[in-house]
Amino acid sequence: MSNVENEPDELRCGGVATAAPEPELLRPREVPLGGPRAMLVGRTLPNRDRRMVGAWCFADFYGPADITGQAGMQVPPHPHTGLQTVSWLLDGQVLHRDSLGNTQLVEPGQLNLMTAGRGISHSEESPADHSAILHGVQLWVALPADERGVYPHFEHHGDLPVITSPEGSVMVLMGSLLGATSPAKAYTPLVGAELTINPGATLRIPVEQDFEHAVLALSDLVVDGREVATGDMLYVGRGGGDVTIGTEGPGRAMLLGGAPFEEEIVMWWNFVGRTHDEVAEARAEWERGRESPDERGRFGVVHGYAAPALAAPELPNVALRARGRVRDRP
Questions:
Q1: Which of the chain's termini has less CB crowding within 10 Å, N or C?
Q2: Is 78 labeled as ligand-binding?
């Protein structure tokens, strides 16, 4: 999925925190997906003070939206570098097309994982015969420096491991949890899982103590004794041994975690890089190819989407700078 803002902020991420982190409630900001009259998404990462959880650097939560008689999600072809996109649906369908020639419908319980590496482009849209409700999560994972130039590739996993208990279930999207390992390729130590909590139950999840973790609430929850409203994310920090998630009614959440990402990165629009020049070069190459399709270069061409590719926003008037993954505090 694209960051479709016309004037995207410089999103400064990466680097080592100077003190042991405390739990933080991260509230989303609303961003229109595809323009001012489009469906709104709630963006919890990057946040004002905390931009990353492990290598997870971007988190959008959208819906449930009734798109009966509407086009639904319509994100034209756009580029990515230096990251992986993780598409996860709770309800509905999204059709993915990319410049490698892949066309794949993703439905609830299925993982679309696209590794951009040195460069790729893709589109996402609700199919013409889509169901009434669209509800999902879009996540990005930053690639480490020695892998950010990897050749782009795409994976679709429709049979992910699930662990069940009387309290609920855990589906492992990426990494390992509770003895189960996802087949999806990860480039840093991390974990991503969807948690389903039975009404009135409390799910206790043992976690890797060297990881930092966060819980994105897909319904109203109580996480480690703290109320977390739908769409909010609770950063629970590092260590602790386990995370507890409780609910009065049926509950759902995303658990995201990983080894703290110690590199400084700069994230702007749909690019993750290390320097201003790296991002500026990617933007310029995308614009050249968008205007002259025979010169698409590393981003290639997405075939089959009805509308033109997205134009890249103008770069800010000051140089982009790589900074730490948390905002410096006084």
A1: C
A2: yes
